[in-house]
Amino acid sequence: MSSITELKRRRVTGNNGVYEELYKEKLQVKKLYDFHELPEWQQDNDKILTGYIRETKSVMKCLRSLFIWNNESVNIYTHLVSAISYFLLMVGITDLLVIPHFPTSTFTDYSIINFYLLGAFGCLMCSSCFHTFKQHSSPHSDAWSKVDYMGIIVLITCSLISLLYYGFFDHKEYFHFFTVLTIVLATACTVCVLSDKFNQKDFRPLRAGFFIAFGLSGVFPVAAGMIKFGIQGIIQRVQLKYLGLEAIFYIAGALIYGFRIPETMYPGMFDFWGHSHQIFHVLVVVASFLHLKAVMGSYNFKHSRLNGVGLSTLHAAY
């Protein structure tokens, strides 16, 4: 190789090194990044093109990102605000202002309602934390995603058990059987969730289907209730109108999340507002509120029966 050729090669190599350093400095200065600027482990949804917080490797930087509007902000705040609201309800507002008092009301009745509120708070807070800290690094993202999934399992478990308690308040054997079944299914879900393979991108539709199946396991106690109490009886006992709406919101949210609607049809248009994960979050909050309405209605039905209050009075309240 001639000395002139070698000199040109070194000059090109040197220039490339300068360009690489300038590009790295530019990345460090930016607050938000495009999809192609992310490390491979962060590249999850290629239909959301902009508005990313790049890998921070710092807990404090993750926390500071709460004050930078990005494509995770709606995900974070829809569940953070809702989690705080449920926490406030749980620590006293519900007991003092929301739950009607009957002569037959017990500490367990209040505890069961708070049990559901605890599950809702835990799920939404876990979700908010995941979306806040997942950009720390790949290991942190994997760990927080498992926390997020565990929160979903906790919410489904608390939702089912709370309604089982009121729906079968006078048939404890049904309550015990279906509670054990719920715990077994929750344990099976937990084992799958803690598997690293389950957390991979290709398993997104399977994850959505898995949680839908667990949630729909509530069909079994409803069917048993229809056989035991009749259709009208189970409608009143578990407030089936609210449960039906709740199921619609949860299933719609899971399907929208699993198939990435609408950003798949219009990439880049819904980066900050309206993409599938955000829609899923909003529908989850609505569904969780509908379940609270169902639990409160079931509580009222139980004590109206025990205290001889007419069903017309109950219907007027709910």
TrEMBL record:
<dbReference type="GO" id="GO:0046872">
    <property type="term" value="F:metal ion binding"/>
</dbReference>
<feature type="binding site">
    <location>
        <position position="277"/>
    </location>
    <ligand>
        <name>Zn(2+)</name>
    </ligand>
</feature>
<dbReference type="InterPro" id="IPR004254">
    <property type="entry name" value="AdipoR/HlyIII-related"/>
</dbReference>
<keyword id="KW-0472">Membrane</keyword>
<feature type="binding site">
    <location>
        <position position="281"/>
    </location>
    <ligand>
        <name>Zn(2+)</name>
    </ligand>
</feature>
<feature type="transmembrane region" description="Helical">
    <location>
        <begin position="175"/>
        <end position="196"/>
    </location>
</feature>
<dbReference type="Pfam" id="PF03006">
    <property type="entry name" value="HlyIII"/>
</dbReference>
<keyword id="KW-0479">Metal-binding</keyword>
<keyword id="KW-0812">Transmembrane</keyword>
<feature type="transmembrane region" description="Helical">
    <location>
        <begin position="76"/>
        <end position="99"/>
    </location>
</feature>
<dbReference type="GO" id="GO:0016020">
    <property type="term" value="C:membrane"/>
</dbReference>
<dbReference type="GO" id="GO:0006882">
    <property type="term" value="P:intracellular zinc ion homeostasis"/>
</dbReference>
<feature type="binding site">
    <location>
        <position position="131"/>
    </location>
    <ligand>
        <name>Zn(2+)</name>
    </ligand>
</feature>
<feature type="transmembrane region" description="Helical">
    <location>
        <begin position="242"/>
        <end position="259"/>
    </location>
</feature>
<feature type="transmembrane region" description="Helical">
    <location>
        <begin position="111"/>
        <end position="133"/>
    </location>
</feature>
<feature type="transmembrane region" description="Helical">
    <location>
        <begin position="279"/>
        <end position="296"/>
    </location>
</feature>
<keyword id="KW-0862">Zinc</keyword>
<dbReference type="GO" id="GO:0038023">
    <property type="term" value="F:signaling receptor activity"/>
</dbReference>
<protein>
    <submittedName>
        <fullName>Minc metabolism membrane protein</fullName>
    </submittedName>
</protein>
<feature type="transmembrane region" description="Helical">
    <location>
        <begin position="208"/>
        <end position="230"/>
    </location>
</feature>
<feature type="transmembrane region" description="Helical">
    <location>
        <begin position="149"/>
        <end position="168"/>
    </location>
</feature>
<keyword id="KW-1133">Transmembrane helix</keyword>
